[in-house]
Write a structure and sequence with these properties.
Elements: H1 3-28, E1 31-34, E2 37-40, E3 90-92, E4 95-97, E5 118-119, H2 123-130, E6 134-139, E7 142-149, E8 152-157, E9 161-162, E10 168-169, E11 175-183, E12 186-192, E13 197-202, E14 214-215
Antiparallel strand pairs: 1-2, 3-4, 5-14, 6-7, 7-8, 9-10, 11-12, 12-13
């Protein structure tokens, strides 16, 4: 066998091993198991795609809509066509008037922005997540909360959210993540800041918030 041929075969073998290792890293690094639930390690970016890094904001989503909205201004969306579903909302003694009627109790699968093999978490799954050790921290300059410890951990960035009128609010100070559930016409969220973390319900139908998926 000629010397050049040997070099070619060796180089091809190295490239094959590198490609295999890279594919395995990409596959295993996207999820972490906490309390028997496999969580994605990144926010959803455009529909059907994860953000590149754990600290990346990804995109915001409104309830039961498969349209991503930018986490920075100016406000843009993932399909360059849809309109922000805003609503004139008035607060009167802690009740919201003109609140849209939501008949279904779960986010419809056809509108789920999670990539294939993943879905929005339930509020019960959020409650399981916040039952473990967690703390406010900073990852590559981004504030957020880390759940778990060592390699078995999950970072959720405090991306903030878009209010019903589309304006940004509490960026790098507050994290808000949709669950797939509605409880008595109130949507279940995971919310946190530097002081607390809660899985609770709000009536923010028109808010744009983050999505973090679990494995199906």
């Amino acid at each position: 066998m000629k010397k050049n041929t040997c070099y070619f075969i060796l180089a091809a073998a190295i490239l094959t091993l590198y490609a295999t290792a890279t594919a395995q890293t990409e596959t295993t690094d996207i999820g972490v198991i906490i309390n028997d639930i496999k969580w994605a390690t990144r926010n959803v970016d455009a529909p059907g795609a994860f953000a590149v890094n754990p600290e990346d904001a990804g995109m915001f989503y409104q309830w039961n809509r498969r349209i991503g909205w930018s986490t920075t201004d100016p406000i843009i969306n993932s399909d360059n066509d849809s309109i922000w579903n805003g609503l004139d909302v008035y607060i009167d003694n802690d009740s919201i008037l003109n609140r849209p009627v939501v008949d279904d109790n779960t986010w419809e699968k056809v509108n789920d922005p999670c990539p294939s093999g993943w879905r929005l978490p339930t509020n019960t799954e959020f409650e399981s997540l916040i039952s473990i050790d967690n703390k406010w921290t900073t990852l590559n300059g981004v504030n957020g909360r880390i759940f778990g410890s060592d390699t078995n951990s999950l970072f959720l960035p405090a991306v903030g959210h878009r209010k019903w009128n589309g304006s940004l609010h509490s960026v790098n100070e507050f994290g808000c993540y949709f669950s797939s559930n509605i409880d008595n016409h109130y949507i279940d969220f995971l919310v946190f800041d530097s002081n607390l973390v809660l899985a609770k319900t709000f009536n923010y139908y028109m808010e744009g918030v983050s999505v973090r998926c679990v494995a199906e």
